[in-house]
Design brief:
Blueprint (H helix, E strand, L loop, with lengths): L3 H4 L54 H15 L6 H16 L6 H11 L5 H20 L1
Length: 141
């Protein structure tokens, strides 16, 4: 697969126009070029939909690491959950994400949803939305 930035170097940008972060061209863990292609035509914005994990080493890209850190911080500051509950839920979240394509993916997600039931609605909504987006992306690849 030819990378979009290689095939259209004239359109490469130094920063993301959505969040302002520096453009990342390769995995920071293994240095494998990030796959991607242009969506839409010249009449559209031309934004790429970035993958969350490296196709070579499987580690998260910086934007996914940020989302994971946010999820962890939300759990850490969730005062409606005991410390044991927070640690158990963080372990479940990592477990759910370990292999979203497995036959057990839905069961793992359900376990997490049951465990997060005690959390405040904002934390619960963020984490469930995060899982839904992650699962949808993994099902595409």
């Amino acid at each position: 697969m030819t990378m979009w930035a290689e095939s259209h170097p004239e359109k490469k940008q130094d920063h993301c126009i959505q969040c302002g972060a520096a453009t990342v061209m390769a995995c920071s863990h293994c240095e494998e070029p990030i796959r991607g292609y242009l969506h839409g035509s010249a009449l559209h914005s031309g934004l790429c939909v970035p993958p969350s994990f490296c196709h070579k080493c499987g580690k998260p890209y910086p934007w996914m690491e940020d989302r994971l850190q946010t999820a962890k911080e939300l759990l850490d500051h969730e005062d409606k959950l005991s410390l044991d509950d927070r640690e158990r839920l963080w372990g479940l979240l990592k477990y759910v994400m370990s292999d979203p394509k497995s036959d057990l993916a839905q069961a793992k997600k359900k376990l997490f949803e049951i465990g997060i039931d005690k959390a405040r609605s904002a934390t619960r909504e963020f984490l469930l939305d995060f899982l839904a987006k992650y699962s949808a992306e993994m099902s595409k690849s």
